[in-house]
Amino acid sequence: MDDSTIVGKCQGGQAECYGQLVDKYSARIINLGYAMMGNRHDAEDVAQEAFVRAYKGLGKFQKKAKFSSWLYQIALNLCKDHLKAKSRHARPTDDEQLANMDGNPKDQAPRVIIQDELSGKMREAINKLPVLYREAFVLRHLQGLEYEDVATITTVPADTVRVRAYRAREMLRGSLAPNVDTFWREKAAKEKGKGRKE
Amino acid sequence: MAMKKDDKKLIHKALDGEANQSETKRLNERLESDGRVRSEFEQLKKVVKDTTKIRIEVPPDFTKNVMSETKRLRKPKL
Lengths: 198, 78
Description:
The complex is a heterodimer of chains A (198) and B (78).
Chain A: H1 3-11, H2 18-37, H3 40-57, H4 67-88, H5 94-100, H6 105-108, E1 112-113, H7 117-128, H8 131-142, H9 147-154, H10 158-176, H11 178-197
Chain B: H1 5-15, H2 21-33, H3 35-51, E1 55-56, H4 62-71
Helix pairs in contact in B: 1-2, 1-3, 2-3
C-alpha cells in the first residue's frame, strides 16, 4: 500500500493504519536524527516526537504533498530545535559518552552498528559540520534523497542544497584525509625544488 | 598547488550522479592523466561511501510506543 493510501485511511478514521507508516519510516527518521545529533537517545526521542507530531497534523495533511518529505521536515526541525537547546544544556554525543566510560567501552557500547573505526571518525566529522551543510549532506548521502526532495524538505532551492552538499563533502574530506593534501603539497614543493636545481 | 576548478566541478558532479556522458568521459581522461585528480576523487568517493556505515537499529518497541502515544490523541480526520 502506498503512503497516500495509508494517509487516506488514517484520515478516514482507521488510525491504526498509521503504524504502517511508522514501521516504514522509523529507521530512516531515527538515523536522520542520529546523523544530525550524534546521540542515539536524542535520535530516538526526536523520531518518536516527529511521528506523534505528524499524526497530530495528519487531518490537515494535503494528499498531493509527499508524506515522507513532510515527515522529514518535521523531524529535521525537531533536530535543529534540539541542537539549539543542546548548545545550552549539553547532552554528550555517543562518542563522547564512550570516551568518558570506565572499563571496556565495548562492553557498554550503545546499540550502534559500527562497522569499523572509520565510521566513528566519520560521525564525529559530520557532527562538526555547520548545521546547514550537515542537513544537506545527511539527507542527500545518508538518506539517499534526490536534490529536489532535499530542497522541498529544507525549503531552499535545489542548487543551494547542491552547493551545501559539495562544501560538506569537501570539509569532510579535509578532516578525514588531511594527509592527502600534505602529500601533494610536499610533492609539488619537491618538484619545484628539483626544477630550480636543474 | 590548488586543483583546477573544472576538475573539482567534474568530480562533484560525478559523485552526485549528475555527470552526463561527455563529462564522464572528460573525468575519466583526467583521472587517468592526473594523480592529484584521481586521489581527490577516490577520497571523496570514500567519504560518501563510508557515511552509509553510520547506522543505528530501531528499538524493538518503537512502533508500539509511538502508537500508544497516538492512542491518547484525537483521531486524525479530514
